[in-house]
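Annotated sample (chain length 313).
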Amino acid sequence: MISFLKLIRLPNLILIAALQYFIRQFLLFPMLASYGLLSTLTNNQFYLLMLATTLIAAAGYIINDYFDLRIDYLNKPEKVIIGRSIKRRVAMALHVVFSLIGLVIFTYLAIHLKVAVLAIIPALVVGLLWFYSTDYKRQLLVGNFVAGILAVFPILFVVLFETSIFKAYYSVDQQMIAVLIFKVLGYFSFVVFLMALLISIIKDYNEVQGDAAINCKTMPIVFGLKVTKVVVVILVLAICYVLFYIQNLQYANHAYVPLMFILLGIQVPLLTAMFALLFSNETYAGIWSHRLAMFAMVVGVFAIPVLNFFPGN
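Output written by the structure step:
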């Protein structure tokens, strides 16, 4: 059981579910309610959406490990699960079953909403996860950008299946709130994309030896470790700058709690990770940089309820 939970990355799945719940509860609900709008999905239907998203994500983690066996045996042999604790054919079967159940749930929700086209997007995500694991992640920059895009899909699912937003957009009286929702979630999605891109590049930095052994074309292999460090610096500073814009608004509204939460929980860890990677060539520096970036991502998710409960004046 422990091996299975490690294989599906249970903490990551909990974080994905929390992200979707926080977005609906603390961003969408208050903004929709301000215009007297109700959510399209019932609570139970939304929980099904969360379940479907986490099942597809779990399937993605499984197939990623399945095709990464050679790299993992070189980079982290002690953490290899498939082929040891869980047989290869069982892992593939789990991937197929989880993906199918997730797609069935999404299809049910799409039919319920009478927007059948919504069932296509989760299917595209499943396909993207497959090709990311088999090919894209080994290509220069392609894998990093796809990883960033995949990180945004849990947010996209919440928005797409909340069809009341689109109905409001095409209403003259309610279009303003729909535009505001798109702007807020678009801004948040951009930060998530940059964070996932950063984490992906640092991960490639740490796994350069194993990736090189099977002819991957990741950034550290093609451009070298020094250039990769420069890119990490640029991404960290870009994320801090984007967050600084939010903090300016918080300062103006006397929302000091979320301001400090973002500063201490996201910006400081990211800057620490950047300096650790920049001024050290030791292996542990890359490992701790990755952990700090992951910590900042987790804090970023929990920043959503903090922003809601401490809005300032």
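Annotation: The mean pLDDT is 90.
Annotation: The CA atoms of residues 77 and 120 lie 37 Å apart.
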